[in-house]
Amino acid sequence: MMFKIGDKVSVLDEDLTGLVVKILGDTITMEDENGFEMDFSKKELVLIKNESQLKRNSFLDVSLSDVINEKETVKRKTITKKPKERFEPTMEVDLHIHQLTDKSSRMSNHDMLTLQLDTARKKLEFAIRNRIQKVVFIHGVGEGVLKIELEYLFGRYGNLKFYEANYQKYGLGATEVYIFQNVSAD
Question: Does the reported pTM lie above 0.85?
């Protein structure tokens, strides 16, 4: 729709009418009856051909009805669901000593192993209490002492099974624990 300076216009979403005083591209400056100037997009305005048209609200034309239809159309968000990641653990515990303490340089090998095993036991108990089904303990490859001790620890629980974690993600340095949820705790 073409507007020209001096045209009487009404704003679509507001109860405002006025005269076009300036046109700059698609921006129309309208002066209302109180002398205030406001800028609007061309699409926000409707040309009023006569006063009776304004009073009867019968100035709906094709462009205005398109705008109304667009506003009335319910826009639904598309939700993209990720496929279930059944094989992904819900909890990871990194047992590398530098992840557990800053004071590892002052610790003996026995102290480091004890800290790692205590951490593993606490995290496993936490997972059991909170009904977390899968936990991956990242122990690294090394000489295998921590891995053997972890297997001994896990073997003392009757409600879980453990196995090598996903090789592609963790390599050889991780053990995944699956906790059976419907076993009653003794």
Answer: no
